[in-house]
Amino acid sequence: MKFLQSIPCGVLATVLLAGTANAAWPEKTITIIVPAAPGGTTDMSARLVGDKMSKTLGQTVVVENKAGAAGIIGSQALARSKPDGYTLGMGNVGPNAINYSLYKTLPYKKEDFKPITLVISVPNVLVVNSETPVKSVSELVDYLAANEERRTFGSSGKGQSPHLSAEMFLQRIKQTAQHIPYKGAGPAVSGLLGKQYTFMIDNLPSSMPSIKSGKFRALAVTGDKRSEQLPDVPTMKEAGIDNMVVNAWFGLMAPAGTPDDIVSKIQQAAKEALGSEEIVSRFKSLGGTPGGNTPAEFGTFINEQQALWADTVRAANLQMQ
């Protein structure tokens, strides 16, 4: 009681009101900013987990796509949002790990975000249009070497893991190719369906429907083991490409300054959603593994990923404005 008496009335009122507001959260719609176009893994995972979280939190969770500039536009929007728990972001390896070493300047910094939880991790997959006359990684390497005009690859955007994975692949096979970036995985998939470029190393979930339908041919996955969903597709190592293990990841982020108790509520709602039979089954069908770790664990993971990709960017001698 003496402690409370020593606090000025105005300050005490502010503290009490803040505590009451946090305790009542959420009282309105929650928005998840997706820094990519509809149709990609970032978008799909956000919609799946958001729908489940809305039932636990008792409020509608909507997805707002803000695509462009390798996830920079959407990430900047999140960084500038009010830290009250009503605006979240679906962070991923591109804007929240690769970009810090790839770009000379960014309109945001890693301290602008507060990690909540990992949502899904997935391997990437090397795909070509099924009408392309190659059926293996070695045949693709020979095809690119023999056809200069076909040395093109697409991606969901500059700086995203599909872009850097393809650059890594080209380094391994000692070739170069023109990069054709799109504003998200959905448009990139459409581009390959339209034979606008030769190959892509995509996040597995966004290419899986086209693989299953026979429109894409999967040549290799970038995980350390074969995908349960594509048991006949070799790993890069099995296909003869060493030191090519890459996994993409996607997770919920909040603006820095979001109260810890609200972040905890979001993490618990997400963890419950990610443990549901429906989400586990859906993610498995996409070749992904559900997350659900704590904010501290997710923060440590992001720091490790930033260091890992910084080494990759340096080795590739890549730098963007």
Automatic annotation (TrEMBL):
Signal sequence coordinates:
1-23
The source's superkingdom equals Bacteria
**Annotated keywords:** Signal
List the InterPro entries hit by this protein, alphabetically.
BUG, Bug_dom1
Asked whether the keyword Repeat is assigned, the reply is: no
Q: Which residues form a coiled coil?
A: none
Q: What family, per the record?
A: Belongs to the UPF0065 (bug) family.
Tell me which PANTHER family the record gives: BLR1237 PROTEIN (PTHR42928:SF5), TRICARBOXYLATE-BINDING PROTEIN (PTHR42928)
- Under which name does UniProt file this protein? ABC transporter substrate-binding protein
- Native source species: Advenella kashmirensis (strain DSM 17095 / LMG 22695 / WT001) (Tetrathiobacter kashmirensis)
